[in-house]
Amino acid sequence: MTVRSSFVVVANRLPVDEVTTDEGRQWRRSPGGLVTALHPVLAEHKGTWVGWAGGTSEEAPEPFDLEGIHIHPVPLTSLDLERYYEGMSNATIWPLYHDAVETPVFKRRWRESYRQVNARFAEAAAEVAAEGATVWIQDYQLQLVPAMLRERRPDLKIGFFLHIPFPPIELFMQMPFRAEILRGLLGADLIGFQQRLAAQNFVRLARHLLGLRYEGQVIDVDGRPVKAGAFPISIDVAEMERMAADPAVQARAKQIRAELGDPKTVILGVDRLDYTKGIELRLKAFRELLSDGKLTVPEAVMIQVATPSRERVEHYQTLRVKVEREVGRINGEFGRVGVPAVHYLHQSYSRTELAALYCAADVMMVTPLRDGMNLVAKEYVAARADTGGALVLSEFAGAATELRQAFLCNPHDPEGVKEALLRAVHIEHPEARRRIRIMQRYLRTHDVGHWARTFLRELGVPDVEAA
Ligand code: ADP
Ligand code: F6P
User: Fold this and answer.
1) For the CA of 139, the nearest atom of ligand 2
2) Catalytic residue among 45, 371, 446, 447
3) Which Gene3D superfamilies match (predicted)?
4) Is the pLDDT at 24 greater than 80, yes or no?
5) Residue 305 in contact with ligand 1 by CB distance below 6 A
């Protein structure tokens, strides 16, 4: 029997991926900021999460309960994976919305697949939502779902949140089925963005492309008000603080430093292996500082965690080759037997291992060319219970508008990145503590609960449990 919920989240990915190991079928937490942000919100409110389980099949796995969340899987076939996920979502929309830092690829056959899969998600959401429920649709993979769901279930309250940047009009206009995407989004009652500028881009686009009128941030869609607004996403700060303060995590952090040979400075990067994250430019900055003699190995070492991501998409394959070549070059030039300059880890980790890495790092480098938010930057700040550590942060990460005490840099300017890194490396402890404390205070009042409450209140759902 289908469970009907008064609060439903619809996202391309479930919080867990189905993986097949020697021990059979297992569920493993899936990567990415969306899952990090929404998992605690849904666990608190006991809602249903509609999403893809990670594998490919005609039939979805049966719905099940996990940590207080009702999980409702949606199937993707291998053709959907190729056309809707790898194609339209991650080779067209992803680069286009990230300032075209890689050239977007446009293919007509991907479009139909995107429509079909969006319709499947809308169908699943319509099935699990109780009468008058709130349905919160997430991210760029599902931009047609709001209108498709409204058509099926006009009784629902529909919210949409975009986790990535929303491009300026001139860039969005490159999209071949741009009006359809825009109408799809306008099916929601409230459309949330990470940044104020993105919300402004959106309302202007509605006028430019569809001739719709707006006042402030409210667009008139055939007499129905649709609101756009900025809701910067965050993390479960209390959970990260708890994890980082755990003696086992602290011991592991010490062990990591010892395994690295107790260097004076540990520099850390943690990202999905994605070309928007600026991993190469960060490695290059480190190499040039070693080359200039401003940093030396083994006094300074770098750890770069590069989580495998979208591995069949060409841009990602090319990036992996470039990053691994750069790591090899640095280690070849500056490493010694048993003492590499860069420790490169192309793996997934548990939350506690990540917390230990954050605690072990003197400097965290978050240098995306473009990023909707970047939760890793917030995780690092929250994890520094000892109030040490310094954050180098790109001005093009959404987090830069909030974490003003980071060492901000323009990732397109190599000298600026090097300078920010050196300043972070040489920061005096009291100054580091002052900066981290201010950012921690801010994050405690702007955690993921605050993000979800603010969005849902604006949608007219003051208390999800009562919805
Ligand atoms: P994005 O959503 O683009 O992946 P974010 O920085 O916003 O970027 O979020 C990434 C999330 O994925 C963070 O919560 C981070 O802790 C998690 N993550 C990144 N790398 C790993 C990894 N190797 N193992 C486990 N979790 C990871
Ligand atoms: O936050 C952006 C985002 O694309 C999420 O929608 C997604 O779940 C995450 O990054 C990881 O990407 P993917 O689901 O393609 O592995």
Assistant:
1) 6
2) 371
3) Glycogen Phosphorylase B
4) no
5) yes
DSSP state of 246: S
Instruction: Please write the tens of the pLDDT for every residue from 46-88.
Output: 799 999 988 898 888 899 888 888 999 999 999 999 999 999 9
Kindly give the distance from the C-alpha atom of residue 36 to the centroid of ligand 1, in angstroms, as a whole number: 8
**Residue 189: active-site member:** no
Q: Kind of pairing, strands 407-409 and 218-221?
A: unpaired
Question: Do 94 and 164 form a contact (C-beta atoms < 8 A)?
Answer: yes
Q: Catalytic: 163?
A: yes
Q: Which of 163, 189, 274, 446 is catalytic?
A: 163
Binding site membership of 349 for ligand 1 (Cβ less than 6 Å): yes
Q: How many residues does the structure list for the chain? A: 467
Beta-ladder partners of 268: 303, 364
Whether the per-residue pLDDT at 408 is higher than 70: the answer is yes
Q: 274 in ligand 2 pocket by Cβ < 6 Å? A: no
Distance between Cα 154 and ligand 1 center (Å): 35
Nearest residue CA, atom 14 of ligand 2? Answer: 13
Rg of the chain over Cα atoms, rounded to whole angstroms, equals 22
> Looking at residue 450, what is its pLDDT?
94
Ligand nearest to the CA of 36: 1
With a 6 A CB cut-off, is 442 part of the ligand 1 pocket? no
Atom of ligand 1 nearest to the CA of 277: 3
Is the CB of residue 116 less than 8 Å from the CB of residue 134? no
Segment 125-136 shows an average pLDDT of 97
Tokens of 75: 């199937």
Average pLDDT of the chain, as a whole number: 94
CA 344 to centroid of ligand 1, rounded, Å: 16
pLDDT band for position 462 (cuts 50, 70, 90): low
Cβ proximity of 266 and 257 under 8 Å: yes
CA 81 to centroid of ligand 2, rounded, Å: 14
Identify the weakest region by mean pLDDT among 42-51, 213-222, 227-236.
Answer: 42-51
pLDDT band at 463 (very low <50, low <70, confident <90, very high): low
Are 341 and 334 contacting, i.e. CB atoms less than 8 angstroms apart? yes
What is the pLDDT, as a whole number, of residue 466? 37
Half-sphere exposure of 204 (CA within 13 A, CB side): 13
CA–CA separation, 52 and 43 (whole Å): 18
> Confidence class of residue 1 from pLDDT cuts 50, 70 and 90?
confident
CA distance 464 to 467: 5
Ligand nearest to the CA of 344: 1
Domains in the chain with CATH codes: 5-233+449-459 (3.40.50.2000), 237-445 (3.40.50.2000)
In sequence order, the 6+-apart residues with CB closer than 8 A to the CB of 403 are: 377, 378, 381, 391, 393, 439, 442
